[in-house]
């Protein structure tokens, strides 16, 4: 688990650094709009239409949205809306194994039952591309 803890420390530092760049946030907003377009192309409806889950898209080495606030008991569905790249989900604080590689249009779900900020990573891209996200789980 020591390796996982050290990658999470690096992830948190990266997340803090990313949040300090306003230009970066504007770029991310544009990128996430593209991610939503890709989602609609793939599934025929907006991601907000999914029932019973909150969707996070994986697109061009980013999570969209990168930070999410949800109540306890929420199921998050990560969806790969890239055309070629595969991604994975590492939920280190939850102690679950890394997901399988998710190819385009594939999904992974997790239900958050404990409150707190849960940082997560894309296994193949967190280090090289800073592909890192957070779910803030409320009481
Ligand atoms: Cu990835």
Task: Provide structural commentary.
The protein has one domain (2-138): Cupredoxins -  blue copper proteins (Immunoglobulin-like, Sandwich). Helices cover 32% and strands 27% of the residues. It has three helices and seven strands. Strands 2-1-4-5 form a four-stranded mixed β-sheet, with helices on one face. The chain has a three-stranded mixed β-sheet with strand order 3-7-6, covered by helices on one side. Strand 1 and strand 2 (62-64) form a beta hairpin. It starts with a helix and ends with a strand. The model has no long low-confidence stretch (mean pLDDT 89). The structure holds copper (II) ion. Pfam families: Copper-bind (PF00127). Residues 59-137 form the Blue (type 1) copper domain.
Give the proportion of residues in helices: 25-40%
- Mean pLDDT, to the nearest integer, reads 89
* Terminal Cα span: 27 Å
Structural class: alpha/beta
Question: Which residues form runs of ≥5 with pLDDT under 50?
Answer: none
**CATH topology name:** Immunoglobulin-like
Task: Detail the topology: elements first, then pairings.
Elements: H1 2-19, H2 22-43, E1 54-59, E2 62-64, E3 67-71, E4 75-80, E5 107-111, E6 116-121, H3 126-129, E7 132-138
Parallel strand pairs: 1-4, 3-7
Antiparallel strand pairs: 1-2, 4-5, 6-7
Copper (II) ion binds at residues 61, 87, 122, 124-125, 131.
């Amino acid at each position: 688990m020591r390796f996982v803890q050290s990658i999470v420390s690096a992830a948190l530092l990266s997340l803090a650094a990313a949040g300090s760049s306003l230009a970066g946030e504007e770029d991310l907003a544009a990128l996430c709009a593209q991610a939503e377009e890709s989602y609609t192309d793939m599934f025929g409806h907006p991601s907000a239409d999914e029932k019973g889950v909150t969707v996070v898209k994986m697109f061009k080495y980013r999570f969209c949205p990168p930070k999410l606030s949800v109540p306890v008991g929420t199921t998050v569905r990560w969806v790969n809306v890239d055309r070629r790249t595969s991604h994975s989900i590492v939920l280190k604080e939850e102690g679950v194994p890394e997901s399988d590689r998710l190819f385009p249009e594939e999904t992974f779900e997790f239900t958050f039952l404990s409150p707190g900020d849960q940082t997560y990573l894309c296994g193949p891209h967190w280090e090289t591309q800073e592909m890192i996200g957070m779910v803030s789980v409320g009481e």
